[in-house]
Amino acid sequence: MKNKTLFATLIIIFLIFMFGDSMTTTPGRSSGNGNPAILLLLPLSIFFIVLTFQWFIVFKDKMISKKTVIILSLLVICHHVIGVYYQIMSFRSYRIFLAKVYEGQFGTTDWDYINSITSGLSIHINNQYFNINTYLLFLSLSLFIWLLSQMIISWRRKMREKKWE
């Protein structure tokens, strides 16, 4: 049952990310009246907390060695470094792509406009905030929080044992 609930949560989070990705306006089109994908941040925040607690529930009865926790933590950190680097490169490529589309439509590139539509929470870059990479970063961050808590629990347990000796 625990695994089914975790799986359902992962699917729902994935669908939210893909829904956010689908809200990206096509290059060269007006963005309309704001960015409705911002509204997805609230359920994602709630699901982040739920997911983090689900890691506790799923691994509650499992004995995980300190070595395993440290190795997993290092892997998650490496994943985040690589994932963020990939996201930065993807964003730069997308900005250049938007500039080429703009130049194709108007004959020149207005970099002030390109910078304005690719900054903040613009609807033009929802695909940069909601994609497979950011979904995986979201999952691994929740797992990393669980791993850190396991390190703290282990450290506190060790301190208590030393205190009683």
Automatic annotation (TrEMBL):
Name of the molecule in the record: Uncharacterized protein
Membrane spanning stretches: 38-57, 69-88, 135-155
Keywords from the named record: Membrane, Transmembrane, Transmembrane helix
Organism annotation: Paenibacillus gallinarum
Keyword match Membrane: yes
Top-level division of the source organism's lineage: Bacteria
